[in-house]
Specification:
By secondary structure, the protein is an alpha/beta fold. It is built from 16 helices and 12 strands. Bound molecules: ligand FNR.
Length: 386
């Protein structure tokens, strides 16, 4: 990806590539609001409670400022990163986002195709409306990880792990911050819960272990399937010892998503996990929680490079990516921006969002005086004076 940012700039300015969704994040969100009904829009845009965590996520980025260096020969830049033995052309991945069918008729298939075209890793959510196998089919051999919501029903959890491996997913991302859904004020006000009308259940409705527990197949009794799903969705009784169950049921590397406390990072290492994702679910789960970026440096200090530390929650622009990498992240996950791209222009929209972010990141890195992701470290940043 040599000079990717300049290439994209010149293609956009000369109208050689599609540029039909807003480039600024705020505009992207505004257009998505115009296009979507309140239910789906706020399902994406809203956060938990008073949205304190969501706001903190953005404020945290402004607490760090880049101090650029000059005369650094940044002519040839390398954005590539290697994570768990896989090399990616940029440090940007697509975060797991469930129920994408509420945003676009093609749902996850459009996002997965866009990720594959852009050479970006796609994390498929347990709560996808399309099944993990359908997503895998449109991705051919492109890289993908499976995000597990650990079902209370162990047969279902084990079955999903087995299916993910068979469908070519190369790692399991276990999301820990959502054993239950948080208090989401907009969704409650809009009485909007897409799962209750059958969206986001693609991984369950064809699962042999899940179907074996139903009185009638989902095609004959969707209500029964939805009711079983709501009983087994999350498991609030899990402890660190339960990780053994996952190890016993998959050979794939396991990453834990939702780590914010350095003590949890330490436990995760002791229990032999293969990677950490610092995240607060974009402020959609625990209201009042620490900004994910504020949690990142301490988690990285614990990890000491023994396992990759990925980051999400608040990534909107290239400077955000550069700051997160400088604070120790190995790669970042993009969330809401691609959901809005999907809502506005399907696969093309997601592609444009990814393209713009990589280009912005490349230019920001170059203007900082760094020519590779390897060169991004804490010496690049100072804490802002308020
Ligand atoms: C999510 N996220 C999420 N995470 C996860 O592990 N499994 C999931 O199914 C979902 N679903 C989901 C739906 C929607 C609509 C959103 C916005 C987010 C969280 C996601 O992976 C990521 O952590 C956040 O999106 C990061 O925050 P920002 O950067 O999008 O604000």
């Amino acid at each position: 990806m040599i000079n990717y940012g300049r290439k994209v700039q010149s293609e956009v300015y000369s109208r050689k590539v599609p540029n039909n969704i807003p480039v600024p994040f705020e505009e992207l969100e505004r257009k998505a609001k115009e296009k979507l009904e309140d239910g789906p829009y706020y399902y994406v845009a809203g956060g938990a409670g008073g949205e304190g965590t969501m706001s903190a996520n953005r404020v945290a980025f402004n607490q760090w400022q880049i101090v650029p260096r000059m005369f650094c020969d940044v002519d040839h830049r390398d954005l590539s990163v290697t994570i768990l033995g896989q090399t990616f052309s940029s440090p940007i991945m697509l975060a797991p986002i469930g129920v994408q069918s509420i945003l676009h008729p093609e749902g996850e298939l459009a996002s997965a195709r866009a990720a594959a075209t852009m050479g970006v890793l796609y994390m498929n959510s347990s709560a996808s409306t399309c099944s993990m196998e359908e997503v895998a089919d449109v991705m051919d051999t492109s890289p993908r990880w499976y995000q597990l919501y650990w079902s209370k029903d162990r047969d279902v959890a084990a079955s999903m792990l087995c299916r993910a491996e068979a469908a070519g997913y190369s790692a399991i991302v276990v999301t820990l911050d959502t054993p239950m859904m948080a208090w989401r004020e907009f969704d409650l006000a809009n009485t909007y819960h897409p799962f209750s009308f059958g969206e986001g259940l693609g991984n369950y409705l064809n699962d042999p272990a899940f179907c074996a527990k139903l009185q009638k197949p989902p095609k004959e009794d969707m209500r029964g399937a939805i009711s079983l799903w709501s009983q087994i969705f999350g498991d609030t009784s899990l402890t660190w010892e339960d990780l053994k169950f996952l190890r016993d049921h998959t050979k794939l590397p396991i990453l834990l998503k939702g780590i914010l406390h350095p003590g949890d990072a330490e436990l995760a290492l002791n229990y032999g996990v293969d990677g950490l994702i610092v995240s607060n679910h974009g402020g959609r789960q625990l209201d009042g929680a620490i900004a994910a970026l504020d949690a990142l440096p301490k988690v990285c200090d614990v990890a000491q490079g023994k396992v990759p530390v990925l980051f999400d929650s608040g990534i909107r622009r290239g400077a955000d990516v550069v700051k997160a990498l400088a604070l120790g992240a190995s790669a970042v996950l993009l969330g809401r921006p691609y959901a809005y791209g999907l809502a506005l222009a399907g696969e093309q929209g997601v592609q444009q969002v990814i393209r713009n972010l990589i280009a912005d990141m490349d230019l920001t890195m170059a203007l900082s005086g760094r020519k590779s992701v390897m060169e991004l470290d804490r010496t690049l940043l100072v804490e802002a004076k308020n």
